[in-house]
Design goal:
Layout: E1 2-5, E2 8-9, H1 18-22, E3 25-33, E4 36-37, H2 40-53, H3 60-75, E5 82-90, E6 107-114, H4 122-125, E7 127-131, H5 151-157, E8 167-171, E9 177-180, E10 184-189, E11 192-195, H6 206-217, E12 222-224, H7 229-233, E13 237-242, E14 246-253, E15 256-257, H8 262-277
Length: 282
């Protein structure tokens, strides 16, 4: 792994950093094709939005320039066909207690790592999901953003270790379908697409937004609404989206089997073309 902290090669973070102490910050995970970033502008916009939601007001032009320099430095000599870029921005070092510093000095962390193993065949063959017992906490103030406190996902992910379970399905406090542990979920029913609202929990996924836009451009009705387990179980098809995985068709949830639909296959092809047009533009 290549890692820079505030533009310098480093492996240590101050114990006083608020990202470590309180999860006070945001992150983005971006797919790399060689040294080219996928969907950089969308990730940058979400990172800015997350900082604003947390009340971390910064000079965005300066931060963007700093991150560009960090990324360029981190990618020098990077020669892998695929990779993963992770950006973390915290409020920086603060004193003891929850009150944030009046003038934060942000901490920027840029990491470049190898592409995860074992996923190459999953977009074609589909994935099976574990139905998680742990559910999302309800918090409208934090819903949608990629803040650094991901304990709901940590607790959910430790529920399974079987190699034939590739993701987990998480519900919200009302017992409705909310998301995968690391992905957004879409349900196909009678030629329409349905995906949960992220107004109380969940993350506003970058790839999910691309799929919704592509679907609407193709004339597919896309609805964001509460999705019950009964609706999910009687759907025509299900798929997941994620910035690294693109679209993963779902072929099983717990003991129920699902078919991969023609709509899912078409959206996979359209998404691949769309992402290729926005790779390297940053």
């Amino acid at each position: 792994m290549i890692q820079l902290i505030n533009g310098q090669p480093a492996t240590n973070l101050s114990l006083a950093d608020r990202g470590l102490a309180y999860g006070d910050g945001v992150f983005e995970t971006i797919a790399l094709q060689g040294q080219q970033l996928q969907l950089w502008q969308a990730h940058w916009q979400r990172l800015q939005h997350g900082l604003h939601r947390l009340g971390i007001e910064v000079d965005t032009s300066e931060l963007q320039q700093q991150l560009r320099q960090d990324i360029q430095q981190a990618l020098q000599g990077w020669s892998q066909v695929q990779g993963v870029l992770k950006i973390i921005v915290t409020r920086g070092i603060g004193g003891r207690g929850y009150a944030p510093p009046a003038t934060p000095q942000l901490t920027r962390i840029v990491q470049v790592s190898l592409w995860p193993d074992g996923r190459a065949s999953l977009p074609e063959q589909g994935v099976c999901l574990h139905l998680c017992r742990h559910v999302w906490g309800h918090n409208p103030a934090l819903a949608g953003i990629k803040h650094l406190n991901r304990l709901d996902q940590v607790l959910a992910r430790q529920e399974w270790s079987a190699a034939d379970r590739h993701e987990g399905l998480m519900l919200n406090q009302a017992g409705h379908v909310q998301s995968g542990v690391m992905s957004n979920i879409f349900v196909e029913h009678q030629g329409r697409l349905y995906t949960p609202l992220n107004d109380g929990a969940g993350i506003d996924g970058i790839m999910a937004a691309q799929v919704m836009a592509i679907g609407q451009a193709k004339g597919i009705q896309v609805h964001q609404q509460a999705i019950s387990m009964d609706f999910l179980q009687h759907s025509d098809g299900v798929f997941l989206t994620n910035s690294l995985n693109g679209i993963w068709p779902v072929v099983g949830i717990a003991d129920q089997a699902y078919k991969i639909t023609a709509m899912t296959r078409e959206l996979q092809s359209l998404l691949a073309l769309h992402v290729s047009r926005f790779t390297g533009v940053w």
